[in-house]
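Researcher: Here's a chain I'd like modeled. Treat it as a single chain, no partners, no ligands.
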Amino acid sequence: MKRNLAYSLLVMLISVASCSFTNKSFETDDKDKLLLDLITYVLEKGHYEPKNIDDDFSVSVFEDFIDVLDPTKRYFLEEDVQEFEQYKFQLDDQIKSTDISFFNLVYDRLVQRMEEAKVLYKEVLEKPFDYSKKESINVDYEKMTFAASRKDLKERWRQQLKYATLGTYDSKMKGVERGDVFEGKEGSEKSKPMTPKEAEKSARVSTQKTLDEFFDFVNDLERKDWFVQYINTIVDEFDPHTYYFAPDEKDKFDTSMSGKFEGIGARLQKKPEGAKIVDIISGGPVWRDARLEVGDLILKVGQEGEEPINIVGMRLDDAIKLIKGPKATIVELTVRKIDGSLDIVELTRDVVELEESFAKSASIIKSDEKFGIIDLPKFYVDFDDYTERNAATDVAKEVERLKEEGAEGLIIDLRDNGGGSLKTVVEMAGLFIKDGPIVQVRSSGKGKDVYDDKDERIQWDGPLVILVNELSASASEILAAAMQDYKRAIVIGSKQTFGKGTVQNVIPLDNIVRSNDHGDLGAIKLTTQKFYRINGGSTQLEGVKSDVVVPDKYSYIDLGERDQANPLKWDKISPADYKPWDGYIDYEQTVANSTKRMANNPQIKLIEENAKWLKSESDEMEISLNYDAYRADEKEHKKKSDYFKVIGDYDSKLSFGSLKYEEQLFTKDSVLREKRDRWHKALAKDVYVEEAVNVLEDLKNNKIEHGKLAAVKG
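Model: Modeled as a single isolated chain. Structure tokens:
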């Protein structure tokens, strides 16, 4: 479906564009202008919900581009921004006429201010920081104004560098307190413990080295790299999933779509205070290490044996280049954990183990009852050969295996599942209903298409629970929504899922130009369609609201589509023609029973308390630069963090085991056995899985009672 859409869209664009976009259309062979013209054309003609490129659009591009270049407001002066503001309401006209004078002015000034900053930060770091002084820094950079003078700018650098150095100073001071030997070789006459004064100086030296390396890195960037940022600022105004890929980035995107990931296995989001982890790829180094989690902020990146580089304020693409690297090399990440504590995590880069991205199942034993759970990290498919391996086929196999081993109820775990193939969702949903619509899809300016399960066979007609959280997105939301609308399953999880209800297609720009002497132009990933559930409501923005809402550590933290820039709005269309499942006579009562159990569960209460604390910590923007206050705050953090560690000690008293076919594989694959043992131990501590089993019990009894009632009526 996506390939056909991409092809038809491409044909439409080429038919109009092939006569227009030639090198002769411009007075100069300016590739930047060609790119700008091409991309705005594709956005206006192909985007699901094109925006008016007007004065409001101009203001948004203006503000966002300045923020992209200087998020911590330590380069541009107030006078610079005032000069830039002559273009604030003109960028819409410049975009339409392929005028890039605004970009040229801002880029040239950025280069100038960065050169000045190289001198400024060295001046600041020449003088010792007074950590006994009672002062603080506000890290709410979005609300911060630009410095009015060079004097104010230097003071801003002083505060930010003192803040950046504080953690390094603390680690060195702890060494001083332990009496660690820092100078000379151990056992030599020159060996001696570092003094507090030397620790302070050493911390400044480390910070300067980090900045030296950062600016060396920036010096390697070319003008075209910054222009891509300008293009993507424009593109990002349409929606958060539309994106321009420069030629080298397009190659990387193609590699990632093939299912091969080399690096640490995490998806990052740019934030003023660092790079935020928003997704962890199953099987990757981060996933295997298990110390990092969604919501953590990466502050510094170090290569093995080298001083780490501070990435706060750095472009996300540049930060990712530092984090990525060849397989088997070490990367050191300085991270502000979601609970506010600082940690240093060493990871060995690797290719993500694809096997961990595939469906897997386990049996659950509770007293004399047996249930099953299928974990699905994503809706995978081989687009070149659908029959090779796909999520729907694999889940169907696991369902059969669980049936053969006597499972009386089934859990589908879609937590952290970011989505994938639409075709696999439709087929997978068909495993649990007789037939009928699964999802509705609408393209811009067109009617809706309804995707149905036409196979009347029901592979699983027993009790069904679907687990979700805030990171269940796209295809996960389609499956959860369909099962919820049919009343076929009870959805347990977060207040709502991620809320990504849009479809993207990649359009190579070279295919739109009839003649091109500028080389590879890259591609644009374009939002072209929107998902709607069968009841007519969109999954966009609002996601799927769980039947049984249970708190987790992310409950009070902004995650998902609503935390993205410029998301498309929620809306609804006419519902599809479908009939709800009639297998449970007490569906609503089962939901009410589960909600009551969760409200009274001590483990859930502790998790919610933790979630509220994490929210309060993430909202704290005023940070003390006094070392005693810093240590006291760190001590309090550790105390609170230790208090919540008991969450991980929970015991559901449930037993988990591999199915027979997998146990036979263990004789030849000890690594697989270790992975499954680790998974089963985690499941045994999972209060959400425990409640899912309780719900399966209720549904099983409902079905039995329904059967008795039907027999009496018969």
